[in-house]
From TrEMBL:
Pfam families: Adaptin_N (PF01602), Alpha_adaptin_C (PF02296), Alpha_adaptinC2 (PF02883). Keywords: Coated pit, Endocytosis, Membrane, Protein transport, Transport. It comes from the Eukaryota. GO terms for molecular function: clathrin adaptor activity. InterPro entries: Adaptor_Complx_Large_Subunit, AP2_complex_asu, ARM-like, ARM-type_fold, Clathrin/coatomer_adapt-like_N, Clathrin_a-adaptin_app_sub_C, Clathrin_a/b/g-adaptin_app_Ig, Clathrin_app_Ig-like_sf. It is found in: Membrane, Coated pit. The lineage of its organism: Eukaryota, Fungi, Dikarya, Basidiomycota, Agaricomycotina. SMART domains: Alpha_adaptinC2. One of its GO terms (biological process) is clathrin-dependent endocytosis. This is AP-2 complex subunit alpha. GO terms for cellular component: AP-2 adaptor complex. Belongs to the adaptor complexes large subunit family. A 1,2-diacyl-sn-glycero-3-phospho-(1D-myo-inositol-3,4,5-trisphosphate) binds at residues 6-7, 38, 47, 51-55. Adaptins are components of the adaptor complexes which link clathrin to receptors in coated vesicles. Clathrin-associated protein complexes are believed to interact with the cytoplasmic tails of membrane proteins, leading to their selection and concentration. It comes from Mycena chlorophos (Agaric fungus).
């Protein structure tokens, strides 16, 4: 670029040749003055504007402030010449921030470039949007970027940039992007033939799916299908093989995407996933000599292990993974050790049994002293997740020993985790107190207030522990130096429970007072305030040291700190009241037990982890915590309180904010539950559906593009549907997606036997088999949802003709048996009846053959010569259900030629079966509205 502009080349040369900064500034000031004059005079052609704006950009890159060239950059964006447009876009993205007023002037120019047929113009506009990405620009141009992404005429490299631009906009301004509305169209691009496009779109889908699980649920099947093609069928171009590994970046993204959703119940998808994961583990069993190949394989392997853990921690795949992880955490490569420890922590956080991990306990503990801090951090996380009642004392002891030499960056997190583990797995309260006090003594400044607050809460709520806690705290305070947190614990516990040990040798009131007061001179005002509260409590229970305590109050009445002065004055007044005065006793009553609450330490630890762009799908801390995380909504509560009123008001507010615990009482709805699709309706559609409810085969749907046919067969509670999908147009149906929505999965199961194809060739037909199982009585048919590209994106949801009568089996009954059972069942509610008008044929006769055809179509067995009236029909059948067994159903159809009416009566031992069979037969006859 500079070679074509001699003035710019010379300017850069002059700057580089400046020997001191003063000469450089002088040259820049001279050039900026000349540029201002040129811009002010105007009448510059495109080349001159480009040259001067390029100089302004170079000056800005050097770190100097520039206040010229903004308007000229805006004008350059509209230039038809690429070189001028390029400089204009470069200036806009560098010189203007996202809230700049100048950006409003370029929105129309950017939109024009997005609509251009020139791919280079498209890319320049996309770069500008992604780099600046202000809210106004996102609102104005997000639709245009999306249109460029889904356009069938867009080049692959434009689609890639459009996907990443949308990703950038969504991360900055998620409210601007209608993610749910665009879901099907964006997911359909995951079937693109170009793997580069698929990688970029998958990155976008990963971000969108984390916040909109249900709308993007169709991506689950797409991801499984693409993994199968890459890993099993090796369908990829050579350009996307990285050291003989097919597109490792895409594999990693797809494996991670699958972990956002609960494991699929579809046995076909589970089988395909199992084969994929098994192949990945087999491919990584033996390391290669090529480092790049190993890196790619390891990246895929660790994500595959994470998915295997997510799917089923008891599967053989996870057993194989545990063996591999044991090898990786001892690797000589730092990166492999890091990934091994992190993945093993994932296993520890989800597994039912920690036995395979405990075998490596010594290696994990040694990893705390690894040369790399990232590995040490992962080892800490793993020890935290694998801790249980059996090994808690060992792990907590090791962490305490390591705490004294640990990195400062790790100490605060270590303190929180030690405190949580000590409380969670304490075999005795005495061990808990000893460990926490040792922790406070060792960690010093890294112990937050929530740690000693929790100690106070537990001691206050545990009466048997109070005397022991007072004695142990006193012994710790005898040490030459103590951290302030320990002084706070000592002040609170001795103030409340010091009288429990006051009669023992060495623990007299005066000794308690001296040891605490000697520490106070090294403490801040907030801690001294707490100690004043301790002293007033002692005035009430230790009258023998009242003079010493009163003198302390009198001395503090004249300090400059307002909080200390106020407390001292109030306590001095209380201390001077007569001994028989009840006011002092009431004020200094022992603190009541704290109400039950969740540990604030967990909230503090989760605050430290925070959210990133890629949200965690599990948390450290063992299976129990992950089950709670999945079953309950996180809700921050501020019900924690201070042990007493010590400290300033502002300090109290800060502490209260840091005591955000976890309220696990609110159930969380399953975000992955499918959205009920909007079913297609129309006279022909309804007629086709109704016909197939009592026929085994026929057309279910047809339009100018696609035809859907059905063939079915049923045996007991099991059925099989063959769905024929025909492409009627001379171009392929691409990005084809098929999914089944069942309103009550516990009553009815409908699954594909194989993943549907992503493309249907022109004027061809493909067949998909569906396995159907009736578990309980159901009333709502499943819905088949299709989406595909045929010039534009098409979606279709159509009811499948799977109704309760499909699972009927003929029953043969004689007249005596039939009427005995008919009377035994009785009337309502186990009887459903409807009277409806009928039409006579052209010769005035009843259309009895049609009624017979309807009953037979619904798999009812017509019993001949049962009813004395030959015009009546009597039928019987048994409904088969996997979970509830068999349910009998009896039917009588009684037409009346003279009245032109017909009475249909259905009786069953199940009220629901009787109602549903009546409704289905009436719909088939066409009399449900009568």
């Amino acid at each position: 670029m500079a070679s074509n502009m001699r003035g710019l080349t010379q300017f850069i040369a002059d700057i580089r040749s400046a020997r001191v900064r003063e000469l450089e500034e002088k040259r820049i000031n001279k050039e900026m003055a000349n540029i201002r004059k040129k811009f002010k005079d105007g009448n510059l052609d495109g080349y001159q504007k480009k040259k001067y704006v390029a100089k302004v950009i170079f000056t800005y890159i050097l770190g100097y402030k520039v206040d010229v060239g903004h308007m000229e950059a805006v004008n350059l964006i509209s230039s038809p010449k690429y070189s001028e447009k390029q400089i204009g876009y470069l200036a806009v993205t560098l010189l203007m921030h996202e809230n700049s007023d100048f950006l409003r002037l370029v929105v129309n120019s950017i939109r024009k470039d997005l609509d251009s047929n020139n791919e280079v113009d498209n890319c320049l506009a996309l770069h500008a949007i992604a780099n600046v990405g202000g809210s106004e620009m996102a609102e104005a141009l997000a639709e245009d970027v999306h249109r460029l992404l889904i356009s069938p005429t867009s080049q692959n490299f434009v689609k890639k940039k459009a996907a990443l631009t949308l990703l950038r906009l969504y991360r900055k301004h998620p409210d601007v992007i209608p993610a749910a509305e665009w879901a099907l169209r964006i997911v359909s691009i995951m079937d693109d033939e170009d793997l580069g496009v698929v990688v970029c779109v998958t990155s976008l889908v990963m971000a969108l799916a984390q916040d909109h699980l249900a709308p993007y649920a169709v991506c689950y099947t797409k991801a499984v299908d693409r993994l199968h093609k890459l890993v099993i069928e090796h369908e990829y171009s050579a350009a996307y093989a990285y050291y003989k590994v097919p597109s490792p970046w895409l594999q990693v993204k797809l494996l991670r995407l699958l972990q956002y959703y609960p494991p699929s119940e579809d046995p076909n998808i589970r089988s395909v996933l199992h084969n994929v994961l098994q192949t990945i583990m087999n491919n990584s069993a033996e390391p290669s000599r090529n480092v790049q190949h190993n890196n790619a394989q390891h990246a895929i392997l660790f994500e595959a292990i994470g998915l295997a853990i997510h799917l089923d921690t008891n599967s053989p795949l996870v057993g194989t993974a545990a063996v591999l992880l044991a090898r990786f955490i001892s690797s000589k490569e730092t990166n492999v050790r890091y990934l091994g420890l992190d993945t093993m922590a994932h296993l520890a956080a989800k597994a039912d049994s920690l036995a395979p991990i405990k075998k490596q306990q010594n290696i994990i503990i040694l990893s705390l002293r690894d040369k790399d801090i990232s590995v040490r951090r992962r080892a800490l996380d793993l020890l935290y997740s694998m801790c249980d009642v059996d090994n808690s004392e060992l792990i907590v002891g090791e962490l305490l020993r390591y705490l004294t030499v640990a990195d400062y960056a790790l100490r605060e997190e270590m303190v929180l985790k030690i405190a949580i583990l000590t409380e969670k797995y304490a075999t005795s309260y005495k061990w808990y107190v000893d460990t926490i006090l040792q922790l406070i003594s060792s960690a010093g400044d890294h112990v937050g207030d929530e740690v000693w607050y929790r100690v106070v809460q537990i001691v206050t709520n545990t009466e048997d522990l109070q005397e022991y806690a007072a004695r142990v705290v006193f012994e710790h305070l005898k040490q030459p130096s103590n951290h302030e947190s320990l002084v706070k614990v000592g002040g609170y516990i001795l103030g409340e429970y010091g009288h429990l040990i006051a009669n023992e040798p060495g623990y007299s009131p005066i000794e308690q007072f001296r040891i605490l007061h000697n520490k106070s001179q090294f403490c801040v005002a907030a801690t001294r305030s707490l100690l004043l509260s301790t002293y007033i409590k002692w005035v009430n229970v230790f009258p023998e040291i009242k003079p010493q305590l009163t003198s302390i109050f009198e001395r503090y009445r004249h300090v400059l700190d307002a909080e200390l002065q106020q407390r001292a004055c109030e306590f001095y007044a209380l201390a001077r009241r007569p001994e028989e005065d009840e006011l002092l006793q009431n004020v200094c009553e022992e603190m009541p037990p704290f109400p039950p609450r969740v540990s604030a330490l967990l909230g503090r630890l989760n605050q430290k982890h925070g959210d990133t762009n890629d949200k965690r799908i599990w948390v450290h801390g063992g299976k129990e915590m992950n089950l709670e995380r999945e079953a309950a909504a996180k809700k921050t509560t501020f019900t924690e309180q201070q042990p007493n009123g010590n400290g300033t008001a502002s300090d109290a507010q800060d502490i209260m904010g840091s005591l955000a615990g976890l309220d696990l009482s609110t159930p969380q709805s399953d975000p992955s539950q499918d959205i009920v699709p909007r079913v297609a309706v129309g006279p022909n559609i309804d007629r086709w559906y109704e016909k197939l409810t009592w026929n085994a085969e026929g057309v279910l749907y047809e339009d100018v593009q696609i035809q859907i046919g059905i063939k079915s067969r049923y045996q007991g509670h099991i059925g099989q549907l063959a769905v024929y999908l025909g492409n009627k147009i001379p171009s392929p149906l691409t990005s084809f997606t098929a999914s089944i929505h069942v309103s009550d999965p516990e009553a009815l199961s409908v699954t594909f036997t194989k993943i549907p194809p992503s493309t249907i060739a022109p004027r061809t037909q493909t067949q998909q088999l569906l396995q159907v199982e009736c578990k309980k009585m159901f009333t709502t048919p499943p819905v088949l949802s299709l989406s595909f590209l045929a010039g534009s994106h098409q979606t279709l949801s159509i009811r499948l003709p799977i109704v309760a009568t499909k699972f009927f089996e003929h029953v043969k009954l004689g007249a005596t048996d039939f009427f005995e059972r008919w009377k035994l069942i009785g009337g309502p509610p186990r009887e459903s009846q409807q009277v409806f008008p009928i039409e006579l044929d052209s010769v005035g006769q009843l259309d009895l053959p049609r009624y017979k055809q309807v009953l037979l179509g619904h798999r009812l067995n017509i019993l001949e010569e049962i009813d004395p009236n030959p015009s009546n029909y009597v039928a019987a059948a048994v409904l088969h259900m996997a979970a509830e067994g068999k349910v009998g159903c009896l039917l009588r159809l009684e037409p009346n030629r003279e009245a032109k009416l017909c009475r249909l009566t259905v009786r069953s031992t199940s009220e629901d079966v009787a109602k549903e069979v009546l409704k289905l037969i009436l719909k088939t006859i066409g009399a449900e509205k009568s």
